[in-house]
Amino acid sequence: xxEEKSFVDTTIHVDVKDYYGNVLKKSEDLNSNACxxxxxxxxxxxxxxxxxxxxxxxxxxxxxxxxxxxxxxGCRILDLGSGSGRDCYMLSQLVGENGxxxxxxxxxxxxxxxxxxxxxxxxxxxxxxxxxxFVQGYIEALTEAGLEKNSFDIIISNCVVNLSPDxxxxxxxxxxxxxxxxxxxxxxxxxxxRLTEEIKNHKVLWGECLGGALWWKDLLRxxxxxxxxxxxxxxxxxxxxxxKELEDVLxxxxxxxxxxxxxxxxxxxxxxCQVIYNGTISGVEDSFEFDCHYTFKAEDVVEVDGEVASxxxxxxxxxxxxxxxxxxxxxxxxxxPKAGSVDPFELALQLEKKSPSSATGGCCSTQSAACCK
Length: 373
Hints:
This protein has 373 residues and is an alpha/beta fold. It folds into 2 domains: 11-263, Rossmann fold (3-Layer(aba) Sandwich), CATH 3.40.50; 273-340, Ribosomal Protein L9, domain 1, CATH 3.40.5. It is built from 13 helices and 13 strands. Strands 1, 2, 3, 4, 5, 6, 7 and 8 form an 8-stranded mixed beta sheet that branches.
């Protein structure tokens, strides 16, 4: 799609807008559990932020995970498919009055709810001027909607990419509006294989975030084609549909809610190196869970692969780490680099076996810090 050509509604867009604008009036109207599956228990600081969100906004919320990366204070954040604005208003508190959150959604009814309560929330948060705005537009056409290239530190999305018929274009537009070193941190629904046409053409299954789910391996391929670093899997949870009629249509396909982080950094030719987490990210001073491979304990030496070394060096986390070549003066840490993609279904099963207190994953375990410059 060229930037000069206006984006046009597809049949899927029309159906999705109708489903989320007219069919669904509140979370209880959903026909499956796909859009309400939390990836992890919600930590106290986020629960506190969510309590300040107006009930009318919350009741029109449909999401498959909690999308709260680390280092948010002062950041410019874009929420793809922001809906009624729940996540935007929660993030508004975490970025602070000097940060900014933009929500984009194509569904007019959802945006009406979000915009109605801007003044209410700014008053509730004690802000002198709004640090949130909402734009009507398509996640496949961000620049056409007026969002500038290279303008956001972080893009989040909560159970929305699956609703798009053109996932590659969504990723390409996200890459375009992110700053260098920026991050796409998003939770979405993935399938155990490429779905049949019957499933993809089922309006309710598409609206319920299942019919448009990507095979998780295709995400890895599309991210690379667009230019992102290989996706880092943060956490995953198996989705139970709990609807006999829909389960009959889905057959043997399985689904998982998974959170990934993708970075806009050059392809790395860096070698593995040792990194030391300085313990400077607010809220995770003792231990920073980067993804399902790496948890950095403050002052411990950890050997990382070249890809992670590049991400940490070029992203907003650079000042929170000390870097040294492998075999540096502090010696080997005894932990070998962990490379390669992770099957989210396997991770979800591993996490199910652990107690909630020991489950890994970063989407729900961090607070904000002054990291965006």
